[in-house]
Amino acid sequence: MWGVSTMESEITSMGACEIAAAIRGGALSSREVVAAHLDRIDQINPVVNAIVTMDHEGALAAADAADRALSDGADIGPLHGVPVAYKDTHATAGMRTTSGSLLFADRIPDHDDETVRRIGAAGAIRVGKTNVPEMAAGSHTFNSVFGTTYNPFAQTKSAGGSSGGAAAALAARMIPLADGSDMGGSLRNPASFCNVVGLRPTPGVVPDPVGGLGFSPLGVRGPMGRSVDDVAVLLSVMSGGHRHDPLSVDRRSVDSDQAVEILGGLRVAWAPTLGGRIPVDPDVIKVLDPFVSALEGWHVGIEFDCPDLDLAEGAFRTLRAAEFDLELGALLDDHPEAFKADLAWNIRCGRELSARDVTAALRDLTTLHRIAADFFSDYDVLLAPVSQVVPFDADLTYPRTVDGVPQETYLDWMRASYLLTPLGIPAMSLPAGFTDDGLPVGIQILTAAHTERRLLSIARALEAISPAAGVAPNMTA
């Protein structure tokens, strides 16, 4: 495969937990692991364009230091020696952080942000940055700095976004772990498109102590990996309170709900069209229907049901646009030529809002949180599509129709994810299967707020019966 040795291929096929255990036990050195992944990146990345900034020498030096620390008997973290790449919106000291924008093409931060710091403190080795759409806006990863990221399963298709570089790098076995962020589906959609696992936590579980909108519950950071166990470990590293984030919560709240050991007896709501609110590509339903139906053999109670999401569209779009205008409006005024049309439109939508519009959206957000709390008193878990479409041609900016229904803006086709964002609950994309053309499809798993442990345990049980879990792309020259 692409000139990669058998040993290197075996290492890069391992999951993060497996790698960490092998390093702790002496079966592998961190240098061997990092070198294998760097070689894999050199071979594969030119095809998918997932990792956009690299530091070979720095990564190998950090791996050597990790090996010395282990041999000296130092205390080590749960990710000791494991390679990781960070989303190109997250500040990394001494490494370019562009946000996919020409305005920041040469920006080199002098500090790590809190997510990066925590993952590094757990022993992970930074190898590079993963590609994003411009300013991480949109669920298709392309920008004017680095170009388009392609799907490892079909290298003319979209890898999703905005954490598309992370998902593609994971799927192509270039890294075993990655971080990401999610407002309207940016962890979930690329995970679905690339057959990996992405978790949007409850707002506040993973702190963001530098963001200017600390009370906003829309945008969150979260983990990505190729298995539920790997995602769970990364979440444990990323989560925990921070005095500068007003929504952040103590790590113990993640484990406040009892785990589920078996699927039997679960009360499951299945919402293939979110209660008739969204069109969904028949190829998506063709994969998800049998996956959900198979749960009946595990004595799972399944009902067609969905929370009342009638307020979600307005609340999400209003608050998103208001945030975009606040954070990016001045830049748009000064550099209108540097913004893609869809993002500029979204920022300008925020300028048309009144204070009453924003306050009403916050009121509706409160109502939606209460609706979610009541819904999950009747059900243990909600299942839904992650995306309304399968991976589409990468030369499109977004799909123009879904099951024959026109999509007017770059947001419309991701309602399957963003209509659930305002509920304030954790949501995971888990591999569910493949279309007849071999394109990945994920299923969205949601539980009550602050029940991440419960969500992870349900996801593990579903992962065990998923025909797509752990399946790698056939990347040939």
TrEMBL record:
It holds the Pfam family Amidase. InterPro entries: Amidase, Amidase_CS, Amidase_dom, AS_sf. It comes from the Bacteria. Signal peptide: none annotated. Residues 32-456 form the Amidase domain. One of its GO terms (molecular function) is catalytic activity. This is Amidase.
